[in-house]
Specification:
four-stranded antiparallel beta sheet; elongated; mainly beta
Length: about 170
């Protein structure tokens, strides 16, 4: 759709920003900056829009064989979140056989959990997600309370040599 007309200022007794063909303009912003969609003011605040936005965090994988040793991430939000997707991006495989669990836990940063990924074989470089590598206990998404953790832990073998990153995608509830 090509816009043939743009008008800033007063139109039919109302201030704001208008676009569209002459005689059928649609207001897109009011005089104080509030946005409009199809001529109707959007009453949602920027903070409310951000709450529903998909957020992403990343970090490095570590070759540590204790609970939460591969990685540990604490929910920084003031409320619960929905962890929608987790990925282990292994760029350098482990030296020996190794499987990794990833999950949510309310206990602490060193607690193993397999509620998102259960036993991903990271002895091969690649990307392992809770969609494709969920295993027996992994789920497509998990609710996580404020201040609680997502951990990556060795389930079997040893993580020596592993290099890569984790990615967590979530929404604030």
């Amino acid at each position: 759709m090509a816009w043939n007309h743009f008008r800033k200022g007063k139109l039919a007794g109302a201030l704001g920003l208008w676009v569209g063909d002459v005689g059928s303009e649609v207001q897109v912003a009011g005089p104080t900056g509030q946005l409009h969609q199809n001529g109707t003011a959007i009453k949602t605040t920027a903070a409310e829009l951000d709450r529903g936005a998909l957020k992403k965090v990343t970090g490095a994988l570590a070759a540590v064989d204790t609970g939460g040793g591969v990685f540990s991430w604490k929910n920084p939000e003031a409320s619960d979140i929905l962890v929608e997707h987790v990925a282990l991006v292994v760029t350098t495989k482990t030296t020996d056989a190794c499987t990794v669990d990833v999950g949510t836990t309310a206990t602490n940063a060193t607690t193993s959990s397999d509620t998102l990924i259960d036993g991903a074989n990271v002895a091969t470089a690649g990307t392992y997600t809770n969609d494709e590598s969920a295993g027996t206990n992994g789920k497509p998404f998990k609710r996580l309370a404020a201040g609680k953790w997502v951990t990556g832990s060795v389930a079997s073998g040893a993580s020596a040599g592993i290099k890569g990153t984790y990615e967590i995608y979530y929404r604030v509830l």
